[in-house]
Structures are given as C-alpha cells and as structure tokens.
TrEMBL record:
Monomer. Mg(2+) binds at residues 10, 100. This is DNA polymerase IV. It comes from Solicola gregarius. Binds 2 magnesium ions per subunit. Its cofactor is Mg(2+). It comes from the Bacteria. Its EC number is 2.7.7.7. It catalyses: DNA(n) + a 2'-deoxyribonucleoside 5'-triphosphate = DNA(n+1) + diphosphate. Residues 224-251 are annotated as: Disordered. Its main location: cytoplasm.
Length: 394
C-alpha cells in the first residue's frame, strides 16, 4: 500500500442495527424501520428481498415475519456522534458524507498507528466495542475505490485494495457498482453489451458520451480507469440542508401536508441558524405511490435564514404541485435549501429590529434549553412528530 491510503467507513444497515443493538429480542431477526415506507432494513430482511424506499405492504409480503419498528432519529443521531468520535480518534483527517459514513485519510499515520489495513481493523474493533455497531471498511488509494471496496465487503467486512492491484479488483465488478450507474443507465449500457467495469473501460469517452450524456460519460470513463484526484476534505460544509417525512399511503389532506411542511421548514431553518448559514433556493421534494419523484424549486432574491420567508416559498411550491399530488398520491414530502452562504443574513433596510428574526431566535433558544418538542405550532398538536425521521441526503 502506498502512502496515499484512504478508508471509507460505512455503518451496516445503520438504523436497523441501532434497533437490534438496543433491543436484544430483535437480534438475528428481520427488522424493518418505518411503516408506510421502508426507511431501513436489517440484513436478515434484505436477504428476503426487502429494500429501502419499498412500500411497507410489499415488504411484508416478501418478509411476513419481519418486525416493524418506528424510527427513532434521536437514537440514530446519538449513535452517529459516538461513531464519529471513533473516526476522529483514528485520524485527524475525516470527511463525513452522511450520518453513517465517512472518508478517513490515514496515509501519514503508518509510523504512529501501523499499516492502513491495521488501522482499519482497529477502527472496526473500536466501533464495535465502543458503540456496539457493525461497520464495513474499504481501503484504497482513491476515495472512489475505497467506497467501492467498502460496498463489496458488506456486511461487517474489511477489504483492502493493494497498490498496483486496483484494476484487477475493479474490472471484474458489475457496472452497477459504480457511482452514477442507476437503473436507467445500467439498462442502456447492458443493452450494448457493457456488463462489467472492464467492458466500460474499453469504450472511448466519446462513445460513452453518446450513450449516457457528456457529463456522465466523462465521469464513468474516469472512474472505470480509477482516476479520482479528490482528497479527503476536512471541515467540508454541506451544499444543502434538508429534512423529509414519510407519509406512507395515508392519503393526507391539504391541512396534513401543510402541518408536515411547517415542521420540516422549522427544522431546516433551525439548522441553518445553528450553523450560521443562509440559503437562497428552496426545493420541495415529492415521492409518489409508484415510487416516482418530483421536485419544485424557487430561488429567493436574497439569502435568508428566516423561517417565515422559507415557509412562504415552500407553501407556494406545494400549491403549484397540488395537481400532481392529487393525481399521483404522495407518499413522501421533503424540504431542502441550497445556495448556502456563511455568516448571518445582511441587515435589511431600514436598519431596525426585525420581529420575525427575533421570534426565530427566541424559539431556537427555548428548544435548545427544553428540547425540540417544548414549543410547537398549534397545527401540529396531536399529530405524529415529523421530525422523528431521517434527513434527506445533502
């Protein structure tokens, strides 16, 4: 292994593993997190064909003896923080990708901590011992290949791609192992006889561009040859902030959707203010009965962290999407903001105190001290808390 050594550490079936850790009766049994839509499935349930984002009824047809549990986001966040503590005790160079995965650069730690493989072995041991969760780790010279290696090693595995053996490992893999090859791209490539990464690497970039588009073709041509110059970015700030709520197949009313929307915007704007950031673009994300998705976006004239401004934009987008919601049957509603900037919003003219921003600050302070459920909107009384759901991928 060269001095360039990157670990990709990825918790296995994270939400379901936390549930099995916390309830011994669930261990070794098929577990589904989420009711109307599968948010996570244990490997016992995955072995029966259950997949994330699958409808709950379909999942139970495939695995009728599955145990269905509701999501506990606070428990997952706590577990994630504990795991990231292990990451940061392993290497000072950690780039978090999501609540349950990260890249670690360990290339300069050989004298201090041993070989990258030894470091990865100890990381897995420490996560299991200190947090009680299984984790898979891939070790390679590039971020792309380390992520592929961790996926191949699952569940609860460790895979090291040796220096000089990168293409020997990569070429036999099916094209679906590559980031960017989804169902449509896979079908298009396979119809041309492209089944493995080796098949893909044999194509000229121009040929790939004609098959999948210029940007995707350039990306796939590069990764099929293991070209990935990206470094582990410490302190990298996300480009968007979002939250979502799974509605199942409950046929929510307009009032139900508005209550969920308000809760999601509250959460997103609170996270913006906590990170001292502002946003310009509001995006509404929708998923329907047939698993199709739609988005609607609005860009505001100036960056903001004000809840009332984002609420107004999100409500307008929801109103514009009402026809497709009525026709298709909505099963998930999400709100995200992007076009993020650092620092507080610019003062407004005339330079006077702005009551909505003062209100936001007061609400944030109450929730920080007494918990997020200490203060809620009247429309959310008696409703299931939409904040106990996973965050949208940023």
């Amino acid at each position: 292994m060269s001095e360039d050594a990157i670990l990709h550490a990825d918790l296995d079936a994270f939400y379901a593993s936390v549930e099995q850790r916390d309830d011994p009766a669930l261990r070794g049994r098929p577990v589904i997190v989420g009711g109307g839509v599968v948010l996570a499935a244990s490997y016992e349930a995955k072995a029966r064909g259950v997949q994330t984002a699958m409808g709950g009824r379909q999942a139970l047809r495939l695995c009728p003896d599955a145990i269905v549990v509701g999501p506990r986001m606070s428990a997952y966040v706590e577990a994630s923080r504990a795991v990231f503590d292990v990451f940061e005790n392993t290497s000072p160079l950690v780039e978090g990708l999501s609540i349950d995965e990260a890249f670690l650069d360990v290339g300069g730690l050989r004298r201090l901590r041993g070989s990258p493989e030894h470091i990865a072995h100890n990381l897995r041991r420490d996560v299991r011992r200190e947090v009680g969760l299984p984790i898979s780790v891939g070790v390679a010279g590039t971020k792309f290949l380390a992520k592929v290696a961790s996926a191949v090693s699952k569940p609860d595995g460790l895979l090291v791609v040796p220096s000089g053996g990168e293409l020997d490992f990569l070429y036999p893999l099916p094209i679906e192992r590559l980031w960017g090859v989804g169902r449509v791209t896979s079908a298009r490539l396979r119809s041309r006889g492209v089944r493995t990464v080796a098949d893909l690497a044999a194509l000229d970039e121009d040929v790939l561009a004609r098959l999948v588009g210029r940007g995707a073709g350039r990306h796939l041509h590069a990764v099929s040859h293991n070209r990935d110059p990206r470094q582990v970015e410490v302190g990298h700030r996300r480009g968007s902030v979002g939250a979502q709520h799974s509605l199942g197949r409950s046929e929510p009313t307009a009032d139900d959707l508005d209550a969920v929307l308000l809760a999601l915007v509250d959460r997103v704007c609170r996270r913006l203010r906590k990170g001292e950031r502002t946003a310009r673009t509001v995006t509404l994300r929708l998923r329907f009965d047939d698993y199709t998705r739609a988005t609607r976006s609005h860009t505001m004239p100036a960056p903001t962290d004000r809840t009332d401004v984002v609420v107004a934009a999100a409500r307008s987008l929801l109103h514009l999407a009402r026809h497709i919601i009525e026709c298709s049957g909505i099963t998930l509603l999400g709100v995200a903001v992007s076009g993020l900037a650092n620092g507080p919003p610019q003062l407004e003219l005339p330079l006077e105190r702005v009551p909505p921003r003062e209100l936001d600050g007061a609400v944030d302070a109450v929730r920080r001290r007494f918990g997020t459920s200490a203060l809620n909107r009247a429309v959310q009384l008696g409703r299931r808390d939409p904040l106990e759901v996973p965050l949208l991928p940023d």
